[in-house]
What does this fold into?
Amino acid sequence: MNNENQKQMCNFLLDNGIENLIGVPDSTLKHFIAEGLKLKKNIIATREEEAIGIGTGMTLSNSPTIIYMQNAGFANSISTITSLVKLYKIPLLFIIGWRGYLKNDAPEHELVGKIQPKLLKLINLESRVVTDTNWRNNSIWALKKIKQQTPCALIVRRMNVE
Amino acid sequence: MLNKNTAIKIILKNINGPIISANGHISRNLYNIKDFDSNFYMIGSMGLASSIGLGVALKNRNKKIFVLDGDGNILMNLGSLTTIGTLKPQNLVHFVLDNESHESTGGQPTHSNKIQVEKIAQVSNYTVFKIKKVSELEIILEKIKTIKNPIMILIKISGKSQIGKRIEIKPEEIKKRFSENLKN
It folds into this structure.
């Protein structure tokens, strides 16, 4: 997603009920994260599971929260998602940058990038891939999900490799 | 040395507010001593009680929020100390029941018999108290009422304690009643 759309998506989500962004930075999401920092709605955690913990506390306090991370961090978080988020039905909205989507991405992303869609399916976390053209509709879908107390994820593909 | 059940009983007698308790025996002990709607029993996601507590504290600034953690748990999430110390909630009280072991999995040793967790908390901006006796705990629980800083109360406890039945409330119900209670 381009710079402008990431900023717009961040503002759209914050204008429509999201109160907090918590996560671990990812270059694929850097414009989204920068917007959250500018608006002082963003907490950077030391790792992804910690972010999910903080976000759970805020959600328990009736304050809707986004957790952002790279897919490497999503793989780190599987146990926390199964034994906290899914188990207690904590309605968190995950935004996950997808490295390893392109064949020529850096080698450390290759395997985890390949299994990313399967991981989401296996743990039964509903998700949509967001792009420059569909981000608004998919954001509306995700906001509706969390209102229904269902956690879900929006996935942002890495489309260029430097 | 204090045992875990005694320590939890003294804490419950002297505090009033939401508690987030670590997984394993700590949540089970708390549940069997006294079940409140304001108890969030974290039955999985080892290490994250202090992070959940931080999120609750940041959104409920007018309430003191209590975390009942263990040494094994906090050692799994030391980064949490630095995040709490950076954000400095004035209403978070972080108990660490330190028996220097993973009691719930058979008593295997943790590093807390070699490394003092409270010192890591201290350099992470916490106000820190270390407790070895009942009388000390009662005094500190009174003293913290006026401290406006993240607080760690590390209580050295004996290795083993009696364990009661498993938590019988469904996780979704634990969430609902905790969340409802926070609105009061």
